[in-house]
Amino acid sequence: MLVNCAAYQQGRKIADITRSEDISEYLKQPGTFVWVALKDPTPEELEQMRHEFGLHNLAVEDTLHGHQRPKLEEYGEIVFTVVQIPELRDGELEIAEVDIFAAPNFVLSVRERTEHGFVAVRQRAEAEPHMLKHGAGFVFYALLDNVVDRYFPVVDALETELEKLERSIFDAHSPRENLQALYELKYKLMEMRHAVEPLTEVLHKLFGGRVPLVCVGVQDYFRDVYDHLLRISTQIDGLRDMVTTALSVNLTMITLAESEVTKRLAAYGALVAVPTMIAGIYGMNFKNIPELDWVWGYPFALVLMFGLDAWLWAKFRKTGWL
Fold this sequence. Notes:
Layout: E1 2-9, E2 12-16, H1 23-27, E3 32-39, H2 43-53, H3 57-65, E4 71-75, E5 78-89, E6 92-103, E7 106-112, H4 119-127, H5 129-132, H6 136-149, H7 151-168, H8 175-205, H9 219-282, H10 297-319
Parallel strand pairs: 3-7
Antiparallel strand pairs: 1-2, 1-3, 4-5, 5-6, 6-7
């Protein structure tokens, strides 16, 4: 659906456009650009925008199908950019998508699978007419800057989740639960990396070397967004390394716990084996067994069994096996 549509000139809004058919009239005016925001549009709405702005069929097709990798493509003066927005919903990481078409006289944003729009971006831009004078290029920057800013709280939340898991690694009651949680966290970080790394390449193209026409004059702003994204990328890499270390420590703790169980079983087996051996010797059916007719033979055997078991018990306790 059409969320917002307005025309701007010399850094100030000159009109709210309520009908898509009127967009082309404002595009013809010198020094004017149109800013359109769509949310989960229908094929008919996208086709109408393609007609109004002269969008390339391949870009429109990518927008219609969604689930695209972050990328940047140029079709003449029009820049088509796909960015992904990670969102934490009830502890689960969901990846939304925003497709941005930008040209010297218009900016069209299409967001999918997200309820968080760009109202704050529009308010910020309209509150800074001296910056909005840069035209569609500044709006393009403001949108990308807002997307990158949304990465920070998600990465911080994942870091907090990792810290909690690290504290619980040495809890003997939940090593396997920790293992599953760490793998889930590693998958979330992998998804974050898949969203960030391609976007880093996209942003580099907007300020380094030959830049698209819409970005001319605002390259420094895109460089600032690029620096923020590098910080996020570095933070994600650090968290992935920490998760790998935590997984290794957790597996070691599981191995140690299993080793403790093995030692305890071996110790108890030894305690049972000694009386069994003595009883087995005296239980053999031979006539010429020493002490077979001894009056104190039975008490002696019991004392010997309990004595040896007590001695073994003390030894195992001293070595930490019991």
